Amino acid sequence: MTSNTSSGATAPDSIDDTEKPEGPIAAAMLAAGLGALALGILTTLAEASESFKEFLNVYDPVGPLSGKTIGAVVVWLIAWAILHVMYRTRVVESRKELAVSLILIGLGVLGTFPVFFQAFAPA
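User: That's the sequence. What structure does it adopt?
Assistant: Structure tokens below.
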């Protein structure tokens, strides 16, 4: 059943305002932050260690970037799967998870800046 509003449009009499779990959303946000942090850590470690840089060279035309991105995606997928199982039925306030995710993403981006990761290069 609908009711008329002053503009002539119809609106439903009742709106489904039941709380839906935000756990899966929080899990996705946290996993994205962890994936970004993994990329920053792998970038910094590749600069700090020549043997680790060679280990990350999965595909020669791309160089160690191939291993860095593959590693970050693997961390993201595993984190998302684990966190989704942990959070799937939880009703959470996702502001805290968003804040943590933004911090993790910021740290990950920091780890990809040359000024930062070159500070760890052997002299």
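DSSP finds five helices and two strands in the chain.
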